[in-house]
Amino acid sequence: MTTKLEALRSEPPSLAREGVAFEGVGRHYSSRRGDTAALEDLDLRIGNDEVVSVVGPSGCGKSTLLELAAGLQEPDSGAVRVAGSGAPAGRLERTAYMPQRDGLLPWRSALDNAALALECGGVGRAQARRRARPLFARLGLERFERALPGELSGGMRQRVAFARTLLAGREVLLLDEPFASLDSITRAGLQEWLAAILAEEPRTVLLVTHDVEEALYLGDRVVVLSARPGRVVAEIAVELRRPRPRRDVVTDPAFSALRQRALEALAW
């Protein structure tokens, strides 16, 4: 009998066009306690318009991986490329980085916070607002354009932050635990919302999360890192076309089998 998961299967994104590449990457930090290896000999390729979720134990270098892709750090060994560019400035120009905290400016309205990405790119404030406004309706934020961040729920703040990330217009999205601080109901709703957005507007995405179910639901592929120093110990393909009806997917026995594979890899 065909399961709900099997009925949703599709071919994985092509890796022919390179989105992000890590080749033999090592990153070490020095402190009074000595040298700490965050990543060691890490190899990972992310295809154009592919969503790759990264999971692993705390301290295994997941956030470091994003900062390397964003050009905010340089590897001590190996190479990092984004859309073919290895230079830090080139990586920075091609990526939009959304950290765990939404980083909204409390004195700016929701619309002005979202438009900030355009303003930083040289667009005037009035034009930036005009370009940002249609996205608010699409993200379920209509009528909240003038609200200050302190007047928004956690889920709405995350959507404003994601609007800002999309408006940056970069080729690659780097998402660091974007829903970690939210309650389970809000988090599940935003996961489905993000899956639908990526179905409508495909992007190359590198998503870091501690939530295995979130990683599988949102990703085309889940990469499992070892304990520090982080290395790739498993890659799990999630062959689901988008959009993904969350209830059908996460309750399917085949999805449960994928989750078990990921958990076993994490225990490695």
Radius of gyration: 19 Å
| CATH architecture classification of the largest domain | 3-Layer(aba) Sandwich
Report the total helices.
10
The arrangement of helices and strands along the chain is: HEEEHEHEHHHEHEHEEHH
Low-confidence stretches: 1-16
- Shape label: globular
Please describe what this structure looks like:
It contains ten helices and nine strands. It has 268 residues and is of the alpha/beta class. It folds into two domains: 4-83 and 171-266, Rossmann fold (3-Layer(aba) Sandwich); 103-170. Helix 4 (110-120) crosses helix 5, helix 4 runs parallel beside helix 6 and helix 5 packs across helix 6 (154-167). It is globular, with a radius of gyration of 19 Å. The two termini are 32 Å apart.
Quick structural overview:
By secondary structure, the chain is α/β, with parallel strands linked by helices. The protein has 2 domains: 4-83 and 171-266, 3-Layer(aba) Sandwich (Rossmann fold), CATH 3.40.50; 103-170. 38% of the residues lie in helices and 24% in strands.
Give the topology, please:
Blueprint: H1 4-7, E1 18-31, E2 34-47, E3 51-55, H2 62-69, E4 77-82, H3 88-94, E5 95-98, H4 110-120, H5 125-138, H6 154-167, E6 172-176, H7 184-200, E7 204-208, H8 212-218, E8 221-225, E9 232-237, H9 246-250, H10 253-266
Parallel strand pairs: 3-7, 3-8, 5-6, 6-7
Antiparallel strand pairs: 1-2, 1-4, 8-9
Helix pairs in contact: 4-5, 4-6, 5-6
